[in-house]
Specification:
Helices cover 58% and strands 0% of the residues. The chain has 185 residues and is mainly alpha-helical.
């Protein structure tokens, strides 16, 4: 594929993405496409230690541990988690929502893991064991959200090259001599 066709496709994609996604509601903008500003890069990630985040985390940990055959009572973990949320002062109306999120996470992960015969590998069971022990001890907080590395926007790093071509400067007499030499071969 010719370089001009590749550049044309890239330009069309960039125009389409920026036209469709430029918004003032914190979404994709031309600033994020071209490199953004340092203020947007300094934003802290949103906390997932909310009732919703905890419900999803504990429900999925329980399902993963159940799938891998850990010796624990999943129903008791669920009851203890919901009691802790109720004791934290969450409104009763939100408690039903938290319970549904827990159950949805539990069923979803259990169904998804059932399809994978190699789900309980040694690396995964180590992570599950740690998370399950934490939940059984009453710490229902999910792991922190990892901050993605700032790549400098859509074209960040694209023009950075590790290899610098050695040769005559473009347009110099030596450059044109080398071009003539290469084409005469």
């Amino acid at each position: 594929m010719a370089l001009s066709a590749i550049l044309r496709m890239g330009l069309i994609g960039m125009i389409a993405a920026s036209a469709a996604a430029c918004s003032s509601d914190g979404g994709l903008s031309t600033g994020t496409l071209i490199g953004g500003n340092s203020a947007s890069a300094a934003k802290a990630p949103p906390s997932n230690n909310t009732a919703t985040g905890r419900a999803l985390h504990v429900g999925t940990v329980s399902a993963r541990a159940t799938k891998c055959g850990f010796n624990f009572d999943a129903a008791t973990l669920r009851t203890n988690y919901l009691a802790a949320e109720a004791a934290s002062g969450i409104p009763v109306t939100d408690l039903g929502k938290v319970e549904r999120i827990y159950d949805t996470g539990y069923r979803g992960v259990l169904a998804g893991a059932a399809k994978d015969p190699n789900y309980c590998n040694s690396k995964r069971t180590t992570v599950i064991k740690t998370a399950l022990n934490k939940a059984l001890a009453g710490d229902y907080s999910p792991p922190a959200v990892e901050v993605a590395k700032d790549t400098g926007g859509l074209f960040g790093g694209f023009f950075d090259q590790d290899v610098v071509e050695k040769g005559p400067a473009f347009g110099s007499e030596e450059f044109w001599d080398k071009q003539r030499e290469e084409t005469s071969k």
